[in-house]
Amino acid sequence: MDEKSLSAIELLKNRQNNSLESVIAASKYIKNIIIGNSKKKKQFLEQGLLPIFVDILQKDKDETLLIQAASVIGSFACRLDEGSKKVFESNAVPALVTLLSHRNPKLVESAARSLKILLLYYNHPTTFIYEDDGIKLLVTLCKHPLESINEISVTILARACESLIRNPGKFDMTITQYQAKVHRFGGLDSIISILLSSKSKVQEACLYAIELFTRDNKELSSYLITRSPDNIELRTIIQLTKDNSPRTQLLAATCICNLYQTKVLPDSYDSSSSEKLQENALSAIAVLCSMRDDSRRQVADLKLIPNIVSFLQSNNQAIRAAACRCARSLSRSIKHLRTSLYDSSISLSVLKLLDDPSLDVRISATATMCNLVLDFSPMKQTAIDNGVVKKLVEFTDEKVEYLLRLNSIWALKNLLYLADTPIKVTVLKELTYERLLTLLKDPKTPIVEQALSILRNLAYKDNSDLTTCEASNQEKHRNTIMSSMIIIPKIGDYFNHRNNEIRNIAIWCITNLLENDNGTQARLLKLKELGFYEKIVTALANDQNEEVKSRAKEAIIRFN
């Protein structure tokens, strides 16, 4: 530890013998040096500094020093389990709670912020947030003139609710009892009032709390809906599904899902309005889950997946399409493919939508199927057993709408990725090389790219399985590709394609044909005779794309 830190520690340990200004300066120094630095936090904890700051909270009167001490205690707990545990063990929580009633708003804010940080540590929760006096105090702070204190107090109430959900049976009250008690003390009303009058982060905290307080609670959901005759609360939440913040959108959408699940939507919302509400909520969830695994986890934790599956069977085609987009976004997660989505039997519901009368629904369903048939998906075999291959091949016809064709070819490519021989045989019986050739000659580049990838995956073998064969003879099928005087030259044509990815996949196809097995030498000589070796050498020397060059280098190694 550096000399300045040691000096600050010594000064604080003997603060009674030092000036107030120097004690405050030492506290500020420690606060600044430990922010975001776990190593420094551990060093200062080992030096016994935490009890000193707790003692300051309990005994000192200077408000500036108290603000610094409260902030330091929160920093020790932030993102450090060891620090959180020691803060709870040091009896800091009662001292911080006492400061919540202080007349200085900056001191109240500092203490409340540290308590909020502590509540992130679920293994050592404080009990004051479940006691009547604690709840009343937090509800009072929801009406504080400072928005920052509003946001913190709302979050603490919400965290308390979430702790009960995550740790059922650990406390002396149930989630329903806590929800009712907070509501009885005016908590939900205060949270809704802040939602309607505030913006940005404070609204996000309010939505977070409302989602938790209305979850599986028809009474509080009904209160939210009937609180105002003009339904301003519901209209505000609907509007927030279009907010710029992805988290705000997701929280607003889950609030709406809670209201739908508890069946409290007002009669003034006719069926078309209610259905539009469902569609918007599903669309918001789909967008948020498309890129964020945290959002996917939150949807699973909220047990929304069974509802999404039920929406796949809605009479409203827009809702079916939106639910399908949700399923697609959720299926981007390997974890959910293997757990919650598999448990919900979502693959069978999506399969049925491949025959949906709505083109938009069929497009969404094929896009979802791209993820459901990947090699690591437990739903892959279910889809195959229920005729997905035949249906996808039907959609590859050139008369079919472009996006539906593209998604279907993409799904076939994914289905063939690392597939064993029986699956490749099943696909080729339906697809045939003749149709594959038609796809390779398609005028649209994305179609060609996926068709080449199908050919690449057909030619691939791993250590446990050789290539596919239509007559269950692995060598015969690889040789079938080689003997096609239409397919092989067509692959060669793509070595000069303007699209980098197509050039890359074309070389990859040749590389896979050179996998080591009994027929490798004959194929190697044939490919050299057709000029492929020279084409690949040229690609290595002249292609401007590094990925293509890398693929060419690998192919040359196979040739040699």
Gist of the model:
With about 550 residues, the chain is an all-alpha fold. Helices cover about 70% and strands about 0% of the residues.
Main attributes of the structure:
560 residues; Leucine-rich Repeat Variant; 35 helices; flat; ARM-type_fold; Armadillo; Armadillo repeat-containing protein
What topology emerges from the helices and strands here?
Elements: H1 3-13, H2 20-34, H3 38-46, H4 49-59, H5 63-77, H6 81-89, H7 92-99, H8 105-118, H9 132-141, H10 147-166, H11 175-184, H12 187-197, H13 200-214, H14 218-226, H15 232-240, H16 246-261, H17 271-289, H18 293-301, H19 305-311, H20 317-330, H21 334-338, H22 340-343, H23 346-352, H24 359-372, H25 380-385, H26 388-394, H27 402-416, H28 421-440, H29 445-459, H30 474-483, H31 487-493, H32 500-513, H33 520-529, H34 532-542, H35 546-559
Helix pairs in contact: 1-2, 2-5, 4-5, 4-7, 5-6, 5-8, 7-8, 8-10, 9-10, 10-11, 10-13, 12-13, 13-16, 15-16, 16-17, 17-20, 19-20, 20-24, 24-27, 27-29, 28-29, 29-32, 32-35, 34-35
Beta-strand fraction estimate = under 5%
Helix percentage: over 70%
- The helix/strand class is mainly alpha
Annotation, overall tally of beta strands = 0
In the CATH hierarchy, what is the class of the domain at 270-416?
Mainly Alpha
What is the gyration radius calculated from CA atoms? 31 Å
CATH architecture of the domain at 270-416: Alpha Horseshoe
- Identify the CATH homologous superfamily of the domain at 270-416: Leucine-rich Repeat Variant
Number of helices: 35
Q: How would you describe the oligomerization state of the chains in this entry?
A: single chain
